[in-house]
C-alpha cells in the first residue's frame, strides 16, 4: 500500500494511525510484516503477537514507529515492513454494469438480442431473475458501490437534478464509504472503467473538489467519462482527473477503447503483483443514448425486428416462460396507453422504428462482445476461476426517453422539442453513425422490458427496476447454470463482495464513523436455490413514481410516464395499486380493491421507510431541476455575471460554465493575429448537436449558433483581420418573453460593427450532456461548420490573451 498517498487522503484521524502498538507476526489475516523485528520495540526486542487483525477500522492502523538507541546501523536490526494484504484466498472481483438495458433484451433472459458472453457466464454461473435497481443511473451506481439506499447516499436522482434537500443533494457523504475504498484499504488493486456519473455537477471543474471523483472514491485507476452519457465516437475522457483525447484510430469507438484500457490494466496488475487480487468496476456508456455502433454490427440485425414491438414483446414473453426465466403462470400486462399498437402505425413509421431497433440491438450485441474480450483476457492470465463476476444487464430498465417516435438528437428531449417522423426518415441510413445522436421510440423500450409494462424512470414498476444479473465464480459456486429467485437489490452487491472476500463491514473509514450497510449479502443464495429471502423490505422512488415491497407484496403508484415532463398530477391525488408479487411476477393483477387493509398497511410502511431514508419531500420535477437556481443546489458561478477565460481553459462542462441561455450576453475576445493570418476556435460551447461558436475562418471573425443540429445561424464578418492585436466582440440581444426565444447577434472588431444577424431560436435548457466549453479549441464534435473537426484541426493558430463572457 502507498502510505504516503494514504496519509494525504482526506479525513484521516491521527489517532487512527498511531493508536495501535502491536507486535505482528509475518502474516496475520492478510496484514503482512516483512522482517524479523517488531514495530514498537527498542532495538531488537520482541514481544507477544496478536491473534487477529481488526479490519473494521480502515485504514488498518500502522504499528507505532520504533525508536532506536544504537549509534551504528550495523548494530541494529531493521524493523518489519507493514503491508496490508487481502485475506488469503480472497477472489478478484469484477462488476460489469451495462447502461439502460431492460430485463427482456438479452438472450440470457429470453430477449431477442444475442448476448453470448452473458450466456457463457450464465452456463456455469447463476441467473438472478428477481434482482432490482433504482430505475435511474446515478442512484443505481451510487447504491451499488456503497451498499446503502440511494437516498441514504444523497443520490435520490441523477446528479444533474440534485436539490437542496437531504437525500437528493448529490453529495455522497463520507459516512457511506464506497466499496472500492473498502477493498483498496484491505489490500486490493482497484480500477474503474467507463461511465461514472456519481460526481455532483458543481464539482466537475478544474477547481474540484475531487473528493467524489473515482480516484478519491477508492479507485487507483480511472479511465472513462464523468457524466451521464457521452458520444461514443467522440467521448469526453478522463484518465484520473486529467482530460485526455481519445486515440486517433480509424473506426474509434469508446466501448472498444475502455475495454482495451481495462485489459491492459488487469494484465499489468497481475503481472506485477500476481498475489494481489483486483477489484474492477467496468461500466459501459452503452447502451445509453446516443445509440452509436459500427455499421457492420447494425447490418447483422437487418430485418430482425420487422414484426414490430408488440410481436417482439410477445415472443420474448413466450421464450422467457419456456426457459423458466419467469414463472409459467406469468401474465403479460398491456402496454402503456400512450404507446401505439404496432399494427396501427403508418408504414413509414414502421420503417423508421425498425431501423431504430436494429441499431439498438447491434449496440447491445457490440457491448456484450467487448465484455467478452475482457473476460477472455482474464481467462488468458488464469484468473477467471477465482474471479467473482457480477454482470448486471442494466442500471435500470430500457429507456423510453426517446418519446413516441425516437430522436436523431437526444438533446431535443432535454429541450422540450418533439422530433417528427418525416424529418427522421431521411436519416435512416445514418442512424447510429457519428452524424446522429440517436434514441429509439418508447414502444421498443416497453418491448425490451418484457414481461413488464413500464420502463426506465418508473421506480414503481419492475420494468424500471428489475434487471437481469448473472453471477459467475467457479471457485465459489458449486452448481452453476441455475436460476435464483430470491429478492435482491443493487444495495446487496457490496455486502456480497465483502462476505465473499472474508471482509467485515467497516465501522470507521478514514476516520469517519459509517452508516450501516443497508443491503443484504446474496452469498446465501449461491448454494441454495430454496433458501428463504433475506432481503424482505425495499422502498422505491424516482421523480414521484414510488412503491414499497415487503414479503412478496408490492404497493405502488404510477405518478408519471418517462415521456411526460409537464402538467403532472398532484402527488396527493395519486392512486395506489397492490400486487402479490409471489404469485404475480409481472405486476399484472391489481388487488387493491380486494385487500384495502393490506394496501393501507403498505402505504404506511412506505412513509415509514421514506422518512427513515430521507426520501421526503418527494420532488417530481424533471427538466426544471437541471437549473441550479430552481433546484436550489450549489452552482460554481452562482450569481456572477462575468467570467474571464484564458487560453488553455478547455473541457468545461455545462454545469461549471457561465449560463448564457435565455438571456442577453456579450463575448469579448482579445486576440493577436500573426503574420499570415489565423483561424480556429476562439470560444465554443457544445458540439455538433447544439451549441455556439465564436471563431475565425480564413481570418474572418464569425459567430455561429447551432440549434440542436437542426438549424444554424451564422453572423460573419466580410473582411479578414489584419496582423496584430484585435478585440472581437459578440453582443447577443435576447428577445425575452420566455425560454428558448431568439435574439439579434452583433459582431464588432475594435469597437466597429462588422456584421449583424438574427438568431430565431435558442436552446432553453441544455446544450449537451458531455460536450464542453473550450477556449482556443473545439473538442470532441464541432459546433460550427468549416473550421475543422476535433482538437487538432480546430486549434486557434493565433494567440488569445483573454476572453470575457458577460451576461445580463
Quick tags:
808 residues, Alkaline_phosphatase_core_sf, Alkaline Phosphatase, subunit A, Jelly Rolls, alpha+beta, single chain, 3 domains, arylsulfatase activity, ten-stranded mixed sheet
Give a verbal description of the structure:
There is one protein chain. The protein is of the alpha+beta class and 808 residues long. Helices cover 20% and strands 21% of the residues. The chain folds into three domains: 1-85, no CATH class; 92-535, Alkaline Phosphatase, subunit A, CATH 3.40.720; 637-807, Jelly Rolls (Sandwich). It is built from 17 helices and 33 strands. The strands form seven sheets. The protein has a ten-stranded mixed beta sheet, sandwiched between helices. Helix 6 (254-272) packs parallel to helix 9. Mean pLDDT is 92; it is low at 1-51.
Amino acid at each position: 500500500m502507498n502510505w504516503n498517498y494514504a496519509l494525504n487522503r482526506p479525513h484521516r484521524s491521527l489517532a487512527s494511525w498511531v493508536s495501535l502498538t502491536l507486535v505482528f507476526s509475518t502474516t496475520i489475516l492478510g496484514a503482512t510484516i516483512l522482517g524479523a523485528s517488531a514495530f514498537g520495540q527498542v532495538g531488537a526486542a520482541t514481544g507477544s503477537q496478536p491473534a487477529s487483525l481488526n479490519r473494521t477500522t480502515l485504514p488498518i492502523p500502522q504499528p507505532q514507529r520504533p525508536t532506536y538507541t544504537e549509534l551504528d546501523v550495523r548494530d541494529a536490526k531493521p524493523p518489519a515492513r507493514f503491508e496490508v494484504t487481502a485475506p488469503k484466498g480472497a477472489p478478484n472481483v469484477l462488476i460489469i454494469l451495462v447502461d439502460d438495458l431492460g430485463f427482456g433484451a438479452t438472450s440470457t433472459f429470453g430477449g431477442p438480442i444475442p448476448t453470448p458472453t452473458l450466456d457463457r457466464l450464465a452456463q456455469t454461473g447463476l441467473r438472478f431473475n428477481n434482482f432490482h435497481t433504482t430505475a435511474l443511473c446515478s442512484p443505481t451506481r451510487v447504491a451499488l458501490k456503497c451498499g446503502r439506499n440511494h437516498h441514504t447516499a444523497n443520490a435520490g436522482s441523477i446528479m444533474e437534478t440534485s436539490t437542496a434537500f437531504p437525500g437528493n443533494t448529490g453529495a455522497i457523504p463520507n459516512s457511506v464509504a464506497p466499496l472500492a475504498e473498502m477493498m483498496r484499504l484491505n489490500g486490493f488493486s482497484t480500477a474503474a472503467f467507463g461511465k461514472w456519473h456519481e460526481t455532483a455537477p458543481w464539482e466537475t471543474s478544474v477547481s474540484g473538489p475531487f473528493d467524489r471523483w473515482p480516484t478519491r472514491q477508492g479507485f487507483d485507476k480511472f479511465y472513462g467519462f464523468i457524466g451521464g452519457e457521452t458520444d461514443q465516437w467522440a467521448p469526453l475522457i478522463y484518465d484520473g482527473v486529467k482530460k485526455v483525447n481519445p486515440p486517433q484510430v480509424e473506426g474509434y469507438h469508446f466501448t472498444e477503447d475502455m475495454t482495451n484500457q481495462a485489459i491492459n490494466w488487469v494484465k499489468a496488475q497481475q503481472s506485477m503483483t500476481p498475489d494481489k487480487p483486483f477489484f474492477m468496476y467496468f461500466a459501459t456508456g452503452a447502451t445509453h443514448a446516443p445509440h452509436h455502433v459500427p455499421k457492420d454490427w447494425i447490418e447483422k440485425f437487418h430485418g430482425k425486428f420487422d414484426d414490430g414491438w408488440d410481436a417482439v414483446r410477445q415472443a420474448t414473453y413466450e421464450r422467457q416462460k419456456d426457459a423458466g426465466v419467469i414463472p409459467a403462470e406469468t401474465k403479460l400486462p398491456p402496454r402503456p396507453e400512450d404507446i401505439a399498437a404496432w399494427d396501427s402505425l403508418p408504414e413509414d413509421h414502421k420503417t423508421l422504428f425498425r431501423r431504430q431497433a436494429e441499431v439498438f440491438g447491434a449496440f447491445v450485441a457490440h457491448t456484450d462482445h467487448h465484455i467478452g474480450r475482457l473476460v477472455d483476457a482474464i481467462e488468458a492470465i488464469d484468473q477467471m476461476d477465482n474471479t467473482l463476476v457480477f454482470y448486471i444487464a442494466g442500471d435500470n430498465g430500457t429507456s423510453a426517453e426517446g418519446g413516441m417516435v425516437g430522436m436523431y438528437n437526444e438533446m431535443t428531449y432535454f429541450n422540450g422539442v418533439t422530433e417528427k417522423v418525416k424529418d427522421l426518415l431521411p436519416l435512416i441510413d445514418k442512424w447510429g453513425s457519428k452524424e446522429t445522436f440517436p434514441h429509439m421510440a418508447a414502444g421498443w423500450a416497453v418491448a425490451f422490458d418484457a414481461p413488464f409494462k413500464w420502463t426506465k424512470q418508473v421506480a414503481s414498476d419492475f420494468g424500471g427496476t428489475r434487471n437481469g444479473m448473472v453471477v459467475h465464480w467457479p471457485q465459489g459456486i458449486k452448481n452453476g447454470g441455475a436460476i435464483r429467485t430470491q429478492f435482491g437489490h443493487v444495495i446487496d452487491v457490496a455486502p456480497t463482495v465483502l462476505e465473499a472476500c472474508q471482509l467485515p463491514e467497516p465501522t470507521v473509514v478514514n476516520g469517519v464513523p459509517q452508516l450501516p450497510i443497508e443491503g443484504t449479502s446474496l452469498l446465501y443464495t449461491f448454494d441454495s436455490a430454496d433458501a428463504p429471502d433475506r432481503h424482505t423490505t425495499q422502498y422505491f422512488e424516482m421523480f414521484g413514481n414510488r412503491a414499497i415491497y415487503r414479503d412478496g407484496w408490492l404497493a405502488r403508484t404510477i405518478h408519471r410516464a418517462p415521456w411526460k415532463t409537464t402538467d403532472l398530477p398532484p402527488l396527493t391525488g395519486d392512486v395506489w395499486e397492490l400486487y402479490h408479487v409471489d404469485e404475480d411476477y409481472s405486476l399484472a393483477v391489481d388487488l387493491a380493491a380486494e385487500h384495502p387493509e393490506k394496501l393501507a398497511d403498505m402505504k404506511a410502511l412506505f412513509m415509514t421507510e421514506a422518512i427513515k431514508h430521507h426520501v421526503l419531500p418527494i420532488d417530481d420535477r424533471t427538466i426544471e431541476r437541471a437549473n441550479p437556481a430552481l433546484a436550489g443546489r450549489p452552482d460554481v458561478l452562482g450569481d456572477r455575471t462575468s467570467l474571464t477565460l484564458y487560453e488553455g481553459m478547455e473541457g468545461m462542462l455545462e454545469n461549471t460554465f457561465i449560463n448564457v441561455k435565455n438571456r442577453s450576453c456579450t463575448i469579448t475576445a482579445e486576440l493577436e493575429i500573426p503574420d499570415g493570418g489565423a483561424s480556429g476556435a476562439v470560444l465554443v460551447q457544445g458540439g455538433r448537436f447544439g451549441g455556439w461558436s465564436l471563431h475565425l475562418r480564413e481570418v474572418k471573425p464569425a459567430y455561429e449558433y447551432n440549434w440542436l443540429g437542426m438549424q444554424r445561424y451564422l453572423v460573419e464578418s466580410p473582411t479578414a483581420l489584419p496582423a496584430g492585436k484585435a478585440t472581437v466582440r459578440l453582443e447577443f440581444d435576447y428577445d425575452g418573453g420566455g425560454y428558448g426565444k431568439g435574439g439579434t447577434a452583433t459582431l464588432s472588431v475594435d469597437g466597429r460593427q462588422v456584421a449583424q444577424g438574427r438568431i430565431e431560436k435558442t436552446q432553453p435548457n441544455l446544450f449537451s450532456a458531455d460536450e464542453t466549453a473550450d477556449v482556443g479549441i473545439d473538442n470532441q464534435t464541432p459546433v460550427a461548420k468549416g473550421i475543422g473537426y476535433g482538437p487538432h484541426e480546430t486549434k486557434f493558430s493565433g494567440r488569445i490573451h483573454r476572453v470575457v463572457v458577460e451576461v445580463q
